Amino acid sequence: MNSLIETAVIEIKQLADVEPQQASKKFELMASTMTDEVLIEVIEQMDIVTLTQINSHHDISCPSIMSELMTPEQIRDIVCQQPLYWEEKVKNNVDELIQHTFEFLTYLIRIQDSEAKQAAILECIAEDQAGLFYLSIPFIEYLLAPAVEADHHSHITDNYDDEDDGETVGFTDRSAEEEAHSLSLDDPRSLLALIRELAPDVEKSIKNLLRSENSSWVAIIDSFVNELVLQAKEKNEVNDEYAEVDDMFSFLD
């Protein structure tokens, strides 16, 4: 590792420990003077905790050069680690949790410059059990609605809202399926439509998980937390810090 990359990594990691949002801005400033190849090497030298801290505190209404340059595997690891940094209002409120996971996934996926990479990210996340739980959370309200539960063969389009309110969340690319059903980009169904178009097997995995026996909201979250903790311990070499997970998610009680 050359001195330029080493210095950049040290500066960003130190800043991420105290001011993650400033670390994100620091990386964006570095991007104006470094090539993509150098930036990718800087990212590769960062541990998953640092990457998660930075991406979790990035202003999701703005494009992120770091997110564009990360590999699907790095993005998957961030998704699986990110819940460890949820604020109390997210951890303890179902509605906040659904909205937060939807916005974070939207930010990570829609920022990519090609459908091929978007699909690769979705498939990579879904291959991880904790990642699949995370992917499923934004769609629980729609896929487990009584009308859908009554007919396991219903398609997500049964729940589409055909009224176009023109609202977005800072992104402009829309899939053909989203356009056909006039879904705004701040509607979780819009993201599910994108998943169905780019990675239909991932959509099937999400539906199978949510509709499987005993996959109630509590069961899904409980399983997700258990898997999350196992992966967090493995990646971060943590032995006891996350052993007591019940206190992290009080709405499970």
Task: Describe what you observe in this structure.
With 253 residues, the chain is mainly α. The chain folds into 2 domains: 1-70; 94-252, no CATH class. The protein has helices at residues 3-18, 20-31, 36-44, 48-56, 65-69, 72-81, 88-91, 94-110, 115-127, 129-136, 140-143, 146-149, 176-180, 188-198, 200-211, 217-236. 37% of the residues are buried.
Question: How is this structure best summarized?
Answer:
The protein is mainly alpha-helical and 253 residues long. The chain has helices spanning 3-18, 20-31, 36-44, 48-56, 65-69, 72-81, 88-91, 94-110, 115-127, 129-136, 140-143, 146-149, 176-180, 188-198, 200-211, 217-236. Helix content is 63%, strand content 0%.
Jot down its keywords.
2 domains; globular; mainly alpha; 253 residues; disordered C terminus
Low-confidence stretches: 146-172, 238-252
**Count the helices. How many?**
16
SSE order, one letter for each helix or strand = HHHHHHHHHHHHHHHH
Describe the main β-sheet briefly.
none
- In angstroms, what is the radius of gyration? 19 Å
Determine the mean pLDDT. Answer: 77
Oligomer state of the chains in this structure: single chain
Strand coverage percent: under 5%
Helical proportion?
A: 55-70%
Distance between the termini: 48 Å
